[in-house]
Give the backbone structure.
Amino acid sequence: MLSNFNQNIKLGVLGGGQLGRMLVQSAIDFNLDVHILDPDPDAPCNGVVKKFQVGSLTDFDTVYQFGKDCDVITIEIENVNIEALKKLKSEGKKVFPQPEVIELIQDKRTQKQFYKTNNIPTAEFILTSSKQEVLDNKQFLPAVNKLGKEGYDGRGVQMLRSSSDLEKAFDKPGILEKLIDFEKEIAVIVARTISGEVVTYPVVELVFHPEHNLVEYLFSPANVTPEISKKAEKIAIDVIEKLDMIGILAVEMFVDKKGEVLVNEVAPRPHNSGHQTIEGNITSQYEQHLRAVLGWPLGKTQQLIPAAMVNILGHDGNKGIAKYEGMDDILSKEGVHVHLYGKKITKPFRKMGHVTIVDKDANKLKNKVNFVKQTLKVKA
């Protein structure tokens, strides 16, 4: 039987951040030639690939010329030039996830409409084009106001709990989404190949930073009932199949007080909610993404050991050359694995790395998470 494996493929990745860096680390195992495009000369991927190009991800000519030199093009961030990717695809280049999928997901407005059209459970919402339209719908509160485009890592999201919060509303196209009274925030990572093979990872439980709306830490597997797990995995498969998407998709969801599972947002790339798969699962999300976009058989996703992930965030009020306090203390703990992203400069709440913690005992796992959170600090 002939194999689809080809180590001579030039894989182009749009974006050179930490997700790209971990994708490259996985690609090295397969001798893959990875090319990176990123606007930041100090991006985490620079220095770990043979070809790192500094350039805009949103400029047509830059993305098009970069892609012409690659066999397969993928992304580690959604804010990329779609028209260039469409042209590359029309000329026979393999672009996964497909440009049309990235385009739909880039705008939270079209993303939410997609869920509604395809009967995918999600929170009630209203499309708004201006701040005035948000004010006109104050009866819809409490709600979350999200920018349609360019929101990332918690930016572009405002909680509007009462009329006194309305001044924070965005004066740009966005959505007003009903605030869900949820029990838990969970996520499922799902992967799909061009042949239609689909696999899901076990459900993870996310805990967000109370102010900055980004994942602070997570537990895998989630502490939910088997019924909720099955429901969440079924929804994730439904989303990727209805998108007809190739690659890896992170599906963030709410579990409400009634036990219903509602899709919040999706990301068509490796994601914060899958970092722990490097140590915790048979196949990491990064290897899985490579397998999916290159047409290889998908890897097994079973959990090897209960795992948690803690984001290493820049200390509030600090900016400058990063210094890590407490590293020796956490490295002395069994089952602790540190991943630093190669970012020299720390800023308040900037993602500087993550720590994966594994332990067969759930209580010990939680204690180690608290220890890491309290002990490891990034300061200037």
User: Anything to note?
Assistant: Residues 22 and 139 are 45 Å apart (CA to CA). The chain has eleven helices and 22 strands. The chain has a mean pLDDT of 94.
